[in-house]
Amino acid sequence: MAQSVPAPSAQPVPEITPISLKAIAPWAVFFGILMLVLLYFVGAEQGATALVSGEDVHEWVHDGRHLLGFPCH
């Protein structure tokens, strides 16, 4: 019982083009600023530098504070 194996066909290898730093930089800056704003609201809002009055922001990010190790009470 002989089985024949088909010969592998030569497929062209797709060329990987690198992404330039000029293309990545605006997105990196955008996400960096977004992460800093998020870190501020989770870690420092409702303190001495509060931008929003009341307890609303604190209640929305309360569990995130504990998850990231920020003391809040």
From TrEMBL:
Organism: Streptomyces coffeae
UniProt keyword terms in alphabetical order: Membrane, Transmembrane, Transmembrane helix
A Pfam short name: CbtB
Residues passing through the membrane, by range: 24-43
Record protein name field: CbtB-domain containing protein
Superkingdom field: Bacteria
